[in-house]
Amino acid sequence: MRNLLYFLIFALLAILLVSCGDSGTGPDTDEGENGESETITYTVSVEASPSEGGSVSPSGENTYDEGEEIDLEATADDNYTFTEWTGDVESTDNPLSLTVDQDYKLTAV
Question: Which of 15, 22, 42, 45 is the least buried, fewest Cβ under 10 Å from its Cβ?
């Protein structure tokens, strides 16, 4: 009877230990020095060319979290017409929807 009791205790401990282990099915995260997950960020640089031809929004260099969706819009000044986006993305869409998954450098022509 005592052997059966030891066996049951051992079996329960083994099940408990196995169920507390890492299953490897969770999301991958980067951990900082304190074990906290870090957010991955990227820089998106946007400009108009020629600069007197109009403006872009948002303009300049901005930082976004990975996976963030942004809309880039070019506005042509008088006597100018927006034709395309060039750089890391080539498109004639205006506004341009972009899911941030890397650093981007774009020019509105």
Answer: 22
